[in-house]
Design a protein that fits this description.
Blueprint (H helix, E strand, L loop, with lengths): L7 E4 L5 H12 L3 E6 L2 H11 L2 E4 L5 H15 L4 E4 L14 H29 L2 E6 L3 H4 L5 H23 L4 E8 L5 H11 L8 H6 L5 H12 L10 E4 L7
Parallel strand pairs: 1-2, 1-4, 2-3, 4-5, 5-6, 6-7
Helix pairs in contact: 1-9, 3-4, 4-6
Bound molecules: nicotinamide-adenine-dinucleotide.
């Protein structure tokens, strides 16, 4: 992807799945990528493989966001991009969702994305602008019964993104904010869901089964994320970019 060289970009939840695929494509495109995750062991291992800085981070921890931003400013002096990607997807409907699961899901997705956007704005303003990509889901557009708290959280991310985009445009901050809405993509999150809900084993490398089930590849989403972070998308702001091969249309 063009237009990413030398940009400093933070990707959360980068130890696995979509976050890792984003970090890999951005690194290949010449960006300086900071990878964070709550899972220190696998996060450090995959960041070392890509030659990137890894920081351990629970996105639901407000204080840790300030520390991460300070470290990025100290090391690189700027922040051009943020991908609020970290997430969890507990399977529970309106009758089975406990208060604990509800609060935890909203904490990771909604609190995490809010803290991320708020702290990134400070450093991006100093850097002369930037691009924020918030990982939502098609669950935000249709509501998925078995993912009650997740659907609510992703819907919140969708509208928070638009509110931030308009704020930044009004204030002439040169910061854009967009959401990405993948359908099912072959990551550990979906492999677990397919096993729990359908009793089907989906091997990460089983291309035949993945295609037969209409499931996308992490790189399909990474390409959209990279576009939104690049200057090629300079007129795209407050948009909801669906990556689902028309799955949610009928
Ligand atoms: N895979 C899909 O089909 C799909 C579809 C739509 C949206 N998404 C969204 O994409 C994002 C990535 O999902 P994925 O499929 O790669 O899942 P994944 O489970 O493979 O990866 C999620 C990563 O987030 C990390 N994480 C979890 N809680 C965290 C926390 N509190 N702080 C920091 N890191 C934390 C995990 O350790 C893991 O590395 C999530 O926001 C998810 O909701 C995924």
């Amino acid at each position: 992807m063009n237009g990413l060289r030398d940009k400093v970009i933070l990707v959360t939840g980068a130890a696995s799945g979509l976050g890792y695929a984003d970090a890999e494509l951005l690194t290949e495109s010449g960006a300086t990528v900071v990878m964070t995750d709550i899972n220190e062991d696998s996060g450090k291992a995959v960041a070392d493989r890509l030659g990137n800085l890894f920081l351990v981070q629970n996105v639901a921890d407000e204080h840790r966001w300030s520390e991460v931003m300070l470290e990025i400013r100290d090391r690189f002096g700027r922040l051009d991009g943020l991908v609020n990607n970290a997430g969890i997807a507990p399977i529970a409907d309106i009758e089975t969702t406990t208060t604990e699961v509800w609060r935890q899901t909203l904490a990771v997705h909604l609190d995490g994305t809010f803290f991320g956007c708020q702290t990134a704005l400070g450093l991006m303003k100093e850097s002369g602008g930037g691009s924020i990509v918030n990982m939502s889901s098609t669950a935000a557009l249709i509501g998925i019964p078995d993912y009650l708290a997740y659907s609510a959280a992703k819907g919140g991310i969708r509208s928070m993104t638009k509110a931030i985009a308009v704020h930044c445009r009004r204030k002439k901050l040169r910061i854009r904010c967009n959401s990405v809405h993948p359908g099912s993509i072959n990551t550990p999150m979906v492999q677990n869901a397919v096993k729990d809900l359908m009793n089907i084993e989906l091997d990460p490398n089983d291309e035949k089964k993945r295609k037969a089930m209409g499931i996308g590849e992490p790189r399909d989403v990474a390409a959209m994320v990279a576009y939104l972070l690049s200057d090629e998308s300079k007129h795209v702001n407050g948009a909801e970019m669906v990556v689902d091969n028309a799955d949610t249309i009928v």
